[in-house]
Amino acid sequence: MKPLLRKNWLIITLVLLALITVVINQFPPFIEKYYATGLFPYISQSLRFLLGWVPFSVGDILYVVAFFWIIVRMVNFIKRWRRKQLKRRILYYYCRKVMQTVLIVYISFNWLWGFNYNRLGSTYQMGLKFERYTNEQLVRLADSLVGKLNGIIKDPASLKTFAHTAQLGTLSRSAYQAAALTYPFLQYQNLSVKASIVYGGGNYIGFLGYINPFTLEAQLNTTIPAILFPTVCCHEIAHQLGYASESEANFIGYIACRQSTEAAFRYSVYYDMFSYAISDLYVRDSALAKEKLKSLPQRIKDDRKQVHAFFSRYKNPFSPLIEWMYDKYLKVNSQPKGRESYNEVVGWLIAYATKYGWDKI
Fold first, then answer.
1. Whether the predicted model's global pTM rises above the 0.85 cut
2. How far apart are CA 210 and CA 39, in angstroms?
3. How many whole angstroms separate alpha carbon 310 and alpha carbon 224?
4. CB atoms within 10 A of CB 250
């Protein structure tokens, strides 16, 4: 028995760690107290400190290396299979290696970042209560957001564009520092925001930005319309702070982005939140939504056309499959509405306005 344990100590250890990980994920209050606001900030800050200065995405490089490693291993396996060299001992070796790799990835994913999918989160920290909202509240939210946009576009010269990722990251960090004066848990240091090495390739799979859960670098798709840069950047920083669900990252990104001294940041986030609100209204009352869209100022209409044209340009036969896969990924990670989770930010905005006043939107 002892020789067997010595021979398989690694796989046994990994299985035990995976079981512990599964159990911890069942207790959101524990995760919130001991991981999300306990251990994770140290993990996140350390990784951002270690990798933030590197001018390229280390996480993207790791993904590329892992991809080619898997291809090489698969080709090697197929060659052996065709040569009928897959004896029981070799099959056992392959199965054990695959199991070890899957367990290591699962454990690393959760302990480095993934536990945050099951935390109590920002709505718990702010004392917000999510409730079913009425059409009247939704219309009021949309009108409030348009009001904010109207106030900003009165001075079009203030709407700068930020094409340089480093500048965008620095301004986003400043926005979070301003938000942290009201919400200390949004304190953000050790900037780690980079351009994705995939570049425009992300357009074909629908990614505006993403966080690497193993290196905690925030990657931005630098080919998207400039109007979206600030809100996407603040969204990814929210992920770095441990807000894993997409609706929460949208909400926290909104809280920070609107605090920026840059008008372009505020315009970007109010535009993004309006897009979610009007999309929700369109599902409930398409006639009213169309009426609201027709009454928009021309500047906002032009921006909507530009964004719509951008996404339409990259539609391809694989888009439905990619969207389905991402939807499943979100559902597996405690977001039962899948891709629709992004739109849940509408409910949190209404809950925020209900608690703090509509003038605070």
1. yes
2. 22
3. 8
4. 27
- Contact present, 249 and 259 (Cβ < 8 Å): no
Q: For residue 194, give the H/E element and its range.
A: strand 193-195
| Residue 269 tokens, joined | 């986030």
Residue 115 sits at the vertex; the CA angle it makes with 354 and 243, to the nearest 5 degrees, is 35
pLDDT digits (tens, 9 = 90+) for 155-191: 877 777 776 677 889 999 999 999 999 999 999 989 9
Say what the pLDDT of residue 333 is: 60
Neighbours of 148 (CB within 10 A): 18
d(CA 143, CA 293): 11
Distance CA 244, CA 117 (A): 5
CB 169 within 8 Å of CB 189: no
| 121-142 average pLDDT score | 90
Residue range 281-335, pLDDT digits in tens: 998 899 999 999 999 999 999 999 999 998 888 776 655 555 555 566 555 565 5
Return the residue matching tokens 């990722």: 165
59/225 Cα distance (integer angstroms)? 24
What angle do the packed helices 263-284 and 135-153 form, to 10 degrees?
150
Under 8 Å between Cβ of 361 and 349: yes
Residue with tokens 């020789």: 3
d(C-alpha 217, C-alpha 195), whole Å = 10
What is d(CA 361, CA 145) in angstroms, rounded to the nearest whole number? 7
CB 227 within 8 A of CB 322: no
CA distances (Å), origin 124, targets 118, 181, 218, 325: 12, 18, 25, 29
Give yes or no for a contact between 55 and 196, defined as CB atoms under 8 angstroms apart. no
Instruction: Tell me the two tokens of residue 18.
Output: 């995976």
Helix (H) or strand (E) holding 210: strand 209-211
For every residue of 90-133, DSSP letters joined together read HHHHHHHHHHHHHHHHHHHHHHHTGGGGGS--HHHHHT------
What Rg do the C-alpha atoms of the chain give, in angstroms?
Answer: 23
